[in-house]
Design brief:
Elements lengths: L4 H14 L12 H8 L3 H13 L3 E4 L3 E4 L4 H5 L9 E2 L11 H13 L15 H13 L10 E4 L2 H12 L5 E5 L4 H9 L3 E5 L1 E2 L2 E2 L1 H10 L2 E6 L13 H14 L2 E5 L21 E6 L11 E4 L5 H11 L5 H13 L1 H23 L4 E3 L6 E5 L6 H10 L2 E2 L1 E2 L10 H4 L2 E5 L6 H16 L11
Family: In the C-terminal section; belongs to the class-I pyridoxal-phosphate-dependent aminotransferase family.
GO molecular function, one term: transaminase activity
Pfam families: Aminotran_1_2 (PF00155), GntR (PF00392)
Amino acid sequence: MSNNKFRHIAQTIDSRILEGLYPANTKLPPHRALADELGTTPSTIAKAYALLMEHDKVISFVGKGTFVCASSQLENVIQANGIEEEYNFSILQPCLIYNQSALQNAFQQSSQQMTTELMGYTDQSGHIAHKKAGAKWSRAFGLEVSHPQDILLASGAQNALDMLIQTYTQAGDIIAVEEYTYPGILSIAQLHGLTVVDIPMDEHGMRVDALEKALNSHPIKMVIILPSHQNPTTITMSISRRQAIATVLKQHQTWLIEDDLYGFLNEKVIPAITNFIPELSFHISGLSKAICPALRCAFIKTPRSEVRKVSACIRSSIWLASPFTFDIAKYLIDSGDAFKLVDTQKAIAKKRQAFAKIAFSFLTHYSHNTSYHMWIALPAHWRSETLLMETKDRHLLVSSGSFFTHATQQASVSTQYIRLSLMAISNENHFQQGILQLAALIKEDPKHAFLPLT
């Protein structure tokens, strides 16, 4: 019997967890029972359980048994930098080392000009000067804004999503998302007890016919779309697709949240979907992906009829987003530094995309020249959860395709993808080393890690 048999057992258990056969928080079979089922020994099952515990898949309690961990998809997909030797391809953020001096200068300038007005409460859930800066930022990347009072301020895009979803839905309601989507949306839906309907996509994004079919079949309260450099697929909607989506939503009088956090990466300005249905759409933009994740500044373009309602939600939840951070954002936008930093990040992304495309030329992959990430289809001999167990041991952090979908019936498809983020590593040589190591690993036959049961 191979000493590596327990690794294959661990893979089998992990597959069952992913497919929902062993749901979160449930107790796994006793060692003897599972050993009899799989034709092995209890000691091999113990080794498999120990390996799964190392990878935070299960947790064991003395006298009680082994249970499936209830870790969130959001926690899995966003892995902050840990040890220096890691190659972090899991987190979407700008390459911060290139923004550091501009941010330091903005902090200094803003602090020198700070007034008592910024230190207290304010009406309308935010200062008008900060809303004007948000309007200027959003207009630069394709959004039509007629009045800055229509811009509301939130503490980051996740906060904006949460407030809008809780304002316009209640437990039991149905929302629609792209079939692969940002896990933060799925986490919010789960938190508020919402049902999620995933809409199929093609190379242009959410399919119009599939959206219309879903709207005819379900009482959908809200549709959420990431139209530019979509996370995780990198798809950017064309103008015609955006117009068609807007037409369907207008016919059904359904709310839209347009999460356009990556719109600044478009090589040419593309009109926002919100432009075509301003009375039904909430548009989110911000600085966390362009400048710095710690700069928690998001701008919500809100239908004029809904400004009071959303403002009330902001006041009841956070009262107002910190004026200090928005003053820094205002300085960066008004000085033009924010737009210079955008150009720098796009240039870095373009260079890294070119390197990664060569390294992964043997794989089917999806990206744009200025995207922060790639969506990679794995070869048939790998599935993403198996690959992640190997990459973690080699300090290579990537994100499984399964993190971006809630539908268990899609597990067999989603586990054939990984999302590869290209910008979190500051050092160029370190980045290239990690890319080459990952490419070499994917070329390997995983039988060296997981031997067959027979």
